[in-house]
Amino acid sequence: DAKTTQPPSMDCAEGRAANLPCNHSTISGNEYVYWYRQIHSQGPQYIIHGLKNNETNEMASLIITEDRKSSTLILPHATLRDTAVYYCIVRNTGTASKLTFGTGTRLQVTL
Amino acid sequence: DTGVSQDPRHKITKRGQNVTFRCDPISEHNRLYWYRQTLGQGPEFLTYFQNEAQLEKSRLLSDRFSAERPKGSFSTLEIQRTEQGDSAMYLCASSFGDLREKLFFGSGTQLSVL
């Protein structure tokens, strides 16, 4: 699976949009981009995933660049409960089943 | 749907003792995964099952570690002759098995080896 690069930490004011970037320059055509988050003392939680097109669900939006070498997770109105570590993962669903986590981005939402 | 359940939540043991953790996946999920997480790191894959078959094991899973899923439902992870380096959070996840599957994680078992 392709490696990802994320900033180690970010801050965001409550009520503002949080934009979390991820680079995956070695991604191949059959690899999806997944985002999970982990709130302190809990297991990771699925947020969203996509292949080529932008995706939106009740939690977030995922913007994938046209060349697919990077993506951005957008939390439109961050709240204090969104404070967590966010993991961007690239996964080849045609072969390996496991998710390979990096160290993620620690998002701190402040008042 | 009560989610993925792990027991115990915390385990303190002395070096050299054996420990066993249990994971109850979401009932209709046929895939079950074990991960380990140390402080400041992302979860590391250990092994996964499809139904009762163990299909992949990480090189992290030394011969002191064994996992089972005897009837394709709950799973156990046993660590024999624990070492201080085994101290970590052990996470279990399950999924339905679709190719674009989402994993659902439990809250983990925090192991401390003294």
Helix content of chain B: under 10%
**CA(first)-CA(last) distance of chain A:** 38 Å
Name the shape of chain B in a single word. Answer: globular
Strand residue percentage of chain A: over 45%
Which whole number gives the mean pLDDT of chain A? 93
Largest interface: A-B, 22 and 25 residues
Number of strands of chain B: 11
The helicity of chain A comes to under 10%
Poorly predicted regions of chain A: none
Order of helices and strands of chain B: EEEEEEEEEEE
Oligomer: heterodimer
Along the chain, the helix and strand elements of chain A come as: EEEEEEEEE
In DSSP terms (H or I, runs of 4 or more residues), the helix count of chain A works out at 0
Structure description:
- With 111 residues, chain A is an all-beta fold.
- Chain A is built from no helices and 9 strands.
- Chain A has strands spanning 9-13, 18-23, 31-38, 45-50, 55-56, 61-64, 70-75, 84-92, 105-110.
- In chain A, strands 1-9-8-3-4 form a 5-stranded mixed sheet, with no helix packed on it. In chain A, strands 2-7-6-5 form a 4-stranded antiparallel sheet, with no helix packed on it.
- The radius of gyration of chain A is 13 Å and the shape is globular.
- With 114 residues, chain B is an all-beta fold.
- Helices cover 0% and strands 49% of the residues of chain B.
- Chain B contains no helices and 11 strands.
- Chain B has strands spanning 5-7, 10-13, 19-24, 31-37, 44-50, 53-57, 65-68, 75-79, 88-95, 104-105, 109-113.
- Chain B is globular, with a radius of gyration of 13 Å.
- The termini of chain B are far apart.
- The mean pLDDT of chain B is 93.
Give keywords.
heterodimer; A: 111 residues; mainly beta; five-stranded mixed β-sheet; 47% strand; globular; B: 114 residues; 0% helix
Architecture blueprint of SSEs:
The complex is a heterodimer of chains A (111) and B (114).
Chain A: E1 9-13, E2 18-23, E3 31-38, E4 45-50, E5 55-56, E6 61-64, E7 70-75, E8 84-92, E9 105-110
Parallel strand pairs in A: 1-9
Antiparallel strand pairs in A: 2-7, 3-4, 3-8, 5-6, 6-7, 8-9
Chain B: E1 5-7, E2 10-13, E3 19-24, E4 31-37, E5 44-50, E6 53-57, E7 65-68, E8 75-79, E9 88-95, E10 104-105, E11 109-113
Parallel strand pairs in B: 2-11
Antiparallel strand pairs in B: 1-3, 3-8, 4-5, 4-9, 5-6, 7-8, 9-10, 9-11
